[in-house]
Amino acid sequence: PRVTPSPVSSPSPPHVAPIQCPPWPSYVTPQHLGPVHKDKGDIARVLGPFYHSFLDVLEFRDHVYELLNTIDASQCFFDIHVNYDFTKSYLDLVVTYVSLVLLLARTEDRRLLIGMYHCAHEMSHGTSDPSFARLGQMVLEYDHPLKKLMEEFGPHTKAVTSALLSLHFLFARRNQGAEQWRSDQLLSLLSTTGTMLSPASSDTMACEYLSLEVMERWILMGFLVCPGALGSSPQCLELWRLALQGSLYVTLLRDEALQVHKVTEELLGSLKGGGWGGQLGAPGPDPHPDSPCSGSLHRGRRAYLRGAVRELEVLLEDQPGLLGPKALFVFMALSFCRDEVSWLVRHAEHVTKTKTPEDFADGHIAELLFLMEQLRSLVRRHVGVLQRYHVQYLARFDALVLSEVIQNLSVCPEEESIILSSFVSSLSALSVKEVDDKEQFDFTPLRLDWFRLQAYTSVAKASLPLGSNHDVGRVMNLIVFHTKLLDSLEDLLAEASDLSDLCFYPRPVEKMFVATMEEPSMLRYSIAFPLLCSHFSRCIHPMCPEEYPHLKAIALGLCNKFLEEMARQASACVMDACAEQHNLSEQLLPKHCASTVSKARNKKTLKQPAKKGEPERWWPPAVGCGMDKLHLTLAELSLSLNHVPNFTVFEHTVTPAEYLSSHLETRFTKAIVAMAGYSQATQEVARPSEVLVGLSAYMTFIQSLGQFVGLDTGRIIRSVLLQQTQPRDAAGEQTLTTIYTNWYLEALLRQASTGAIILAPALQAFATVPREGEPHFSAAEFSDVSEMRALAELIGPYGMKFLSDNLMWHVGSQVTELKKLVNENMDTLVQLRSSSCKPEQMAALLPRLTSAENVLKRMTIIGEILSFRAMAQQGLREVFSYHCPFLMGPIECLTDLVTPDTDIQITLSIFELASAAGIPCEVDPALVNVLAGSKTDGSSPEEDYKVACLLLVFVAVSLPLLASDPASIYNTEVDGYNNNIHCLAKAIIHVSAALFTVHNKNIETHLKEFLLLASVSLLQLGQETDKVRARNRDSISLLMQLIVAESSFLTVDMLETCFPYVLLRNAYREVCRENMLSRVPSH
């Protein structure tokens, strides 16, 4: 077959192919043997298996000659209806031999292979191979194989013709068109309901499910090698012409086929030239592929079989007890379907040019394959029914009939009598108890004895001639069929319905699958193609183990391709339906309410009232049609994918539903990411609440399909959503966690650091500062309470932790830069720290500080990041409390149990647990971890601690500089400052708490020191003569209140000791008055 590798083109060894030997058989001339002598060992090793394969053919031919001569000498009797096994084996032998010779003639470079091996062998051993001469002669003789075969089979024409003529009645009855089948109600149990329980029996039991394709091969190849019989017998000519009408190609082996019309025309044409034309007396057949002899005939048969076998399968599925009496119908149906499928695949592969392509393509072939699978499954499920029925049939009917036939024999020699009597005894001893006890039946010895008896009694001078005692053969054929139903059911199913040869026709099978997927009514049967691949393991042969990996790869590759395509289409239907549900849910969003109401009002206005007496018309929405189509397609594919839970292909267990599950996960993941609509170039992204609405629509629809598609949709949803909480999904693509983390850092917080967005505590969100000439963007729509809750719902605790870690990394970077600035001003800060009670000295030292504005700016950025994180954590806490209240309660109780005396490691562990649930903590464990890992290289813990203390000093003494900033005005509408300096309070408190936790120092003490320094610095603003530097003094004073309110370590009483509360009250009153005046319109 075509899958066999060519030895001449084999890459090992590379020097074999280029060698050109002289014409056959002059291989021994020395001038040609230089390259062969050099690599004789490799040549002998590589070509040895091929050479010995040719020797096997030679040996097989010798045995065939001997056997055929023995049969002729014995003048054997052949009748397919009587000695079925003997006749079938004889015809199989003839066809196998003819096929082997034709394949040998097709082997390219056969002379080169044999000659090169012979040369290498002679050089290595000093003598030629003893079989070379005969092998060379055989190869020469079969250059024109059919002519040689005609000569060989000349003496055997009588035996071959008699065997073939016994097929005449059977073949004519089996080779009928669909119209005749329909008029005969073939395979119908309902046409004669009165005899529905009567056993289906026949005098030619095994012939009823004998493959029509096999009979065609017997007839066509038999008459090719015995053409003389065509001119001598009108019956032979009629049988031959009838066979020619069935097929354009007959199988030699696997995917090797014989173009029978063309070969026959060429052969008979040459015979006419030699004087055979007068003997044949008839022109050759039409070899043209467009001959109407076969295509329409088989198309009609397939159409009839789809209906008839469907009816049979439904009836037997409903009443499996009918399998007992009507088992023959099942195997007939399987055989008929197998023949039609095999014919279609074979001709679709080999017929390339035709005027009627519809004859060699069938978009409904999947239904036929599916019905075959159903019948096979039905037989396997109800094997007990078959065994109980037929064990009684054998014991109570077949044994009695056989005994009666034996008694009516006119002559029955002792030997034959003993054998036949043993058959009766064996059958009579059967009982139903053996079936109930699940004993294993084995009638192989009985069938073997019967086969030997056929051979003994089919010779010319047999004591008990089978040709004169047809009843013995007919009864035994019936018994053989019934015994196979008991002990060889799988072999019987394979004999009637084996489609393993389709493994060698991947292209036409794939084309049929594509046609099936394009036909909506066939989608429910598409699973038949993957199930077909489970048959391919029958192609392997113990004598050819090297084929196993290749055939396994073909079977698994086709199966995987079919299931992938089915799952792709099914998942596409699910996702399209989900997208439609998403569109509908999106139209209900609040942002669309105005346009929806407007459209509804306009529609109501434009709607014309119906005329009097005329009913209102209802037009179905266009979306309904699309959704109906999606649902229908999905229903069909789901039925197919869930037809079987699993099946085996070459020892691999295949689960079809898992393919759909995998595709759904992949598509669902991509759909979720697509809903976010993230563009890195324009920094556009959908609001988390909108994505959550769309996700809910997807989830609701997928969950509703749970029973419909036969999948664990909950597992799919959990898997996909869990992947969205990680930075990358299973395919390595970005997730919602990555998208929103990047967007909030790169878009929202970056704009906040430039002053384009401010934190509005009154709104509990970030707000955009309106500016002319810039596109409208509302930060509040992405950062308010509802959006933070939606974000927490989307990315979950894992995603929020990833977001938090990224935020903290940026905080850590800013703290590292702040430490560098502290180191630059180390000496001045030390002096300032020691001069907290000396205002004049502090005033003199302040101008010596560098980068004070930079320090305040970086601390403000830290505050913005921490404020956003706090909002996100609050959203997480609300979501977590809603979903897991039974977990939130114990965590909150555990957090409340922490006291200042608790060990710091235990405290941090509890705070880390609380932080994961969104609960705010006195000390942020994530910030502690980041700052602990950002210690200055080469510095001691004491130096790091000193830098941390001086950082607070730096911030405290720099606060008065904010008063000169025009944007440092406290806005009562947003409850904050226009330049976000109210974020300083959170930055100061949380950074100091984390820093001093790292160094295991008292946080409260250092914050009191900060209050003292900040108060002294701000009180000096009251003595400032430069109005520009002190113009926003009142607004800046309010920072002290914000800092105390932010910290759990500081109290108002502590603030009162260093910054009188009356100043805060006056400042707040002044700020409120200025805000009210600024809102009064000028006249």
**Proportion in helices:** 55-70%
Profile the largest sheet: 2 strands, antiparallel
Report the total helices: 48
Radius of gyration: 46 Å
In total, how many beta strands? 8
Structural class: mainly alpha
Strand content: under 5%
- Side-by-side strand order of the widest sheet: 1-2
InterPro entries: Nck-associated_protein-1
GO molecular function, one term: GTPase activator activity
Organism: Aquila chrysaetos chrysaetos
Protein name: NCK associated protein 1 like
Output the keywords:
48 helices; two-stranded antiparallel sheet; disordered N terminus; 1083 residues
Description:
This protein has 1083 residues and is an all-alpha fold. Among the domains are: 392-488; 512-725, no CATH class; 826-1079, no CATH class. The protein is 65% helix and 2% strand. The strands form 4 sheets. Strands 1-2 form a two-stranded antiparallel sheet. It has a two-stranded antiparallel ribbon with strand order 3-4. The longest helix has 40 residues, at 785-824. The protein is elongated and about 145 Å long. This is NCK associated protein 1 like.
